[in-house]
Design a protein that fits this description.
about 30% helix; alpha+beta; 8 strands; about 210 residues; four-stranded antiparallel β-sheet
Length: about 210
């Protein structure tokens, strides 16, 4: 009984040890990817002059081939202009690219290479350039909606549109003349009527 128990425990222990060994072997390549150790310029650093090149150093030399161009580094300035020339140099664990001068402000670095275990790795970081002799890109002017001249009424047109036209005043410069002529006509008519009535009246008898 004791011998069987010992044998069973031994087999269980060997099985457990084998399983742990296989797990360790299987997990080994997953943790073998190269890691980024340093950059130049440094991450989040502020430099007083635009760098002539950007380099990244890995924990191990990457798998690279000049003919296959397995490593890529793209550098852009604050305006979005690409400053890297597209050529990447691999020197041991360091990959680098030449950079043209750009505008002041944040620079963005995108990189991609192949780890020494054959797996692709990539990343992104930024740094800032504040060169006193370089121009800082001006902010885009705010656009405002403008009304075309033809659509915007002038002050004179607006006043003419809101003012009610006045009727011309009658010309009364001859009013006195008209009144005088009327009075003369009335006087003449009155005289004619008076004479007509006198003629119609009977003459008085001389004996009374």
């Amino acid at each position: 009984m004791t011998t069987r128990k010992i044998t069973t425990r031994s087999r269980a222990g060997l099985a457990l040890a084998g399983a742990l060994l296989l797990a360790a072997i299987g997990a080994g390549p997953a943790h073998a990817h190269d890691a980024l150790q340093s950059t130049s310029p440094e991450r989040d650093a502020t430099v007083t002059a635009a760098p002539a090149s950007v380099s990244l150093t890995l924990s191990e030399p990457p798998t690279d081939s000049q003919s296959l161009n397995l490593s890529v580094i793209t550098v852009t300035d604050s305006t979005g202009k690409t400053l890297s020339d597209g050529q990447v140099t691999v020197t041991g664990p360091t990959i680098s690219t030449k950079v043209a001068p750009g505008s002041n402000g944040p620079y963005t670095v995108l990189w991609r290479t192949v780890s020494s275990d054959g797996h692709p790795i990539e990343g992104k970081y930024s740094f800032t350039v504040q060169d006193p002799g370089a121009e800082t890109p001006a902010a885009a002017p705010a656009t405002t909606a403008s009304v075309p001249p033809s659509a915007a009424p002038s002050a004179t047109q607006s006043a003419a549109a809101t003012t009610v036209p006045m009727a011309p005043r009658p010309d009364d410069s001859n009013a006195l003349l008209v009144v005088g002529i009327g009075a003369v006509i009335l006087a003449i008519l009155g005289g004619i009527l008076y004479l007509a009535r006198r003629r119609r009246e009977p003459t008085g008898t001389g004996g009374n």
